[in-house]
Amino acid sequence: MSTREERDRIELLQGTLDLLILRTLLFGPAHGHAIAKAIERDSENVLQVEQGSLYPALHRLIKRGWISAEAGTSENNRRAKYYRLTAKGRKQLNIERTKWDKLAGAIARILRPAEQ
Amino acid sequence: MKRRKRMLEELDQDIRDHIEAETRDNIERGMPPEEARYAAERAFGNTALVKEEVRAVWEWQWLERLGQDLRYGLRMLAKAPGLAVVVVLSLALGIGANIAIFSLVDAVMLRMLPVKDPQQLFSLSSNQTKPVRGGPGYSGYGISLSYSGFERLRQQNDVFSSVVGFVPLGFGPESVAVNIDGQPSLAGGEMVSGNYFTGLGVSAILGRLLTSEDEEHATRVTVLSYGYWTHKFGRDPAVVGKTIALGGEPYTIVGVAPPEFFGVEPGRAPDFWVPLAEEPGLTPWGVQPPKGQSFFTAKNWWWLMIMGRMKPGVSREQARAGLDVWLRQTLTGESGLSQAEAQAFVMKLEPASRGLDNLRGEFSQPLRILMGLVGLVLLIACANVAALLLARARARRREIAMRLALGASRTRLVRQLLTESLLLAAAGGLCGMALAGWGARVLLLLMSGGASLPLEVHTNLTVVGFAAGVSMLAGILFGLAPALGSTRLNLNPALKENADGGFDEGRMRRWSLGKSLVVAQVAFSLLLVAGAGLFVRTLMNLEHQNLGFDPRGLLLFGVNPTQNGYEGPRLISLYDRLLQRIRALPGVRAASLSAIAPISGWFNSSPISVEGGQTKADENLNALWNAVGPDFLNTMGIRLVLGRGIGDHDTSTSPRVAVVNQALARKFFGNLDPLGRSFNFGRAFKPDEAYEIVGVVEDAKYTDMRGEAPMTAYIPFSQAGEIGAMHFEVRTAGDPAFLIPSLRRAVLEVDSDLALSELKTQSQQIDESLVEERLFAKLSSFFGVLALGLAAIGLYGTMTYSVTRKTNEIGIRVALGARESQILRMVLGEAFALVLIGAALGLPLALATARLVASKLYGLKASDPLTFSLAIGLQLAVATLAAYLPARRASRVDPMVALRCE
User: Fold this and answer.
1) For chain B: N or C, fewer Cβ within 10 A?
2) What's the CA gap between B442 and B649, in Å, rounded?
3) Cβ separation of B18 and A37 shorter than 8 Å?
4) Which residues of A touch B (CB under 8 A)?
């Protein structure tokens, strides 16, 4: 795969960001910057989130009721907005994860039929 | 808006926090502060765009899209203003007609009485299931109880928290002689129990209303209605304390009722109310009781109308059962009926939250029929608009295909198109509201036949809700089919296609949608056209029948001198003087008087017993009779067959005589000579009450224009016993209208206190009796023409499109030698086929519907073949007109141009 050499970091598929946010919040509430950092860290910097794009996604998830926002204090004692996974979000994470597995499997089968 | 601003501020803060945190991270990683900040901003991306996207997430998105859709819709409509105008006009007519009729339905059938807790109100009346000799005498008008019965009911009952009684002071709307500052006039009033207003929960707008003390002491006080106060006194607040004469006695005005209170019966709004009491001038129903008797003591006269406010927790069944027992006790006690006879009576307890239902009874069926008619008109208008929009959608195929290709979802596009339809519907609805306000007034005039029907028809929440609902429904109805049809596209050919040419499978399907819309319009308009035919022919049959008398040049008016204290011989002599005075007027050819004016809807009816006659118990021996003055038959133009008419020499002291019509003579005497025989009114023959038959006349209509002329007897009014108000008939040489001023003067010369009532020509009287028929004929014709016009527009549009679509085919045919006439026939044939399919579908529907209005027809059957053939013929004629232009255009197609189209 030539692209692998050209670009180590790949852009996110539409919709996958939601999944990643939900997954990140599974470990507890976090503020925006922390979420962005966590995604970068966990993907070993392969996935690049343009940090700003996190915010429309966060608000979309709030609107769907999958996460909630609350005021809190950050580690260095500053006021910050925290995002927390709701029960509905937790359920949704499972659904999204299953969907993702299926999609990833399907794409893998198409791209690498020989290995099947 | 505030909330939105706060949310924006929070978002800003969030983003700033984020960038700061990233900057700190970068500094920790060893970047110089300025670079760290720059890197953080770069990593974050375009903040303005992020904010925009977040806002898009929050947006009341549907609202914003609706705004977009509306703006876009308006732009699209502005591009085709002609179409928009036609569509809005069709809808305005369709929706407006519906609103107009509905506002009447609301006023007559739906609206609650403007009183406190109207749902607690019930009206009481008794119903007789079989005739009982010696039972209570009814005046036949939703009557409830005798006065003593009412007294006992209001003193003790377990059912009602309050019981109110009321009675009109006459049968007509203007039956009481009023004198205000020396000016005589007529008005309609009601006598009500003292607790009438408090029981209903109505309070005065000026002064006070009546109280129980007023009834107890029979104080001569009166409360005016808001309407009467307005047009008689110019809303002068100084009327309180003023004295006016009612029925010749002075009454003091104590207050004015609120504007919305019209009494308890829609369509019969009293001008004033007085306390329920024995009065010389004002009597229940305007009827003078026989000498020595009184409405208030007679136990067998049931004349008082009653409403009660049900106690909470009492069920209607419980209440009715309790009242039934009470009624039987009253009947066996006061009225002296046997137990068995009393069983023939049942109590009726009807919800009265919408008032008494006399008007409802009279108008609910016509209104339902009219509602059906206008519903059809709206359906046709919707089909028409749908066809127009479909054609428009075809013109927008490329635009729609482009938007679909660029990724717009089909639902989004359908919503866009539906928004446009709803926009049109809303515009149509608004224009319709304006039309309806005017239409309802015209309707009210038509319904009341010129006389004013005191009915509050105004736009209230119910009507506006109905209008909005109908408009929405119409919008969806005519918008959905084109919206769904036009977004179901095969993209490739649609994008490639040039303006008109080209075929594809999707297009064939849409074409048939347009076709079925035309078929539906034809089917529905057949219903309306055939209905119009039936109603118009009914009216013609009624108007052009032989009445048995000559209604032309005949003037009618009524007087009621009993209100001015005339009675007995003085009354008869007054009538004689009036008649002499009127006969002497120049321009009068003949004049007479009668107790009942012909074709006024009123009648006297009695069983007849003839000397030596054998009466079978079950046989209907009821005949109508009229007390008439000298020369009545001649004045009316009723032709004498045998003997003589009633003349000046038939007086109260001369032998009792009568003239009968042929129907009566045939029934009672067969082929025998009726002259010289005697009969009397009642079930048994009594020689001292008998009238000798001195003449026989041809049958003439009496009460109304429908049905066979009834068996009728005419007796001299001076020999009729009790008489009261009389109607004069004046045969004039020229136009009766010219005689009116001198007639008024003549009456006032005899007695300046006499007021003329119901002054009109016999033709007007007949017109008034045909109000409903005329209403149906006029409205159904109007709607029929409207429907035909709409269907014609629809057919024209569809045929034009069809011809354009077939330009190629026609070109080939012409190139191969088809003649102009053949092409013309081909296109017209297609139009005819559509009309015939529509007619075939509409005919059974129309026949079934016509059966519903069979009782409204006269002189023809609901399935009248002539009417239906005419209706179909008319539709074919209109179709020919509508299809001719497109057909001619088709026949002139130049084959070279047509073939090059491809």
Assistant:
1) N
2) 49
3) no
4) 31-34, 36-37, 50-53, 55-56, 59-60, 63, 74, 78, 80-81
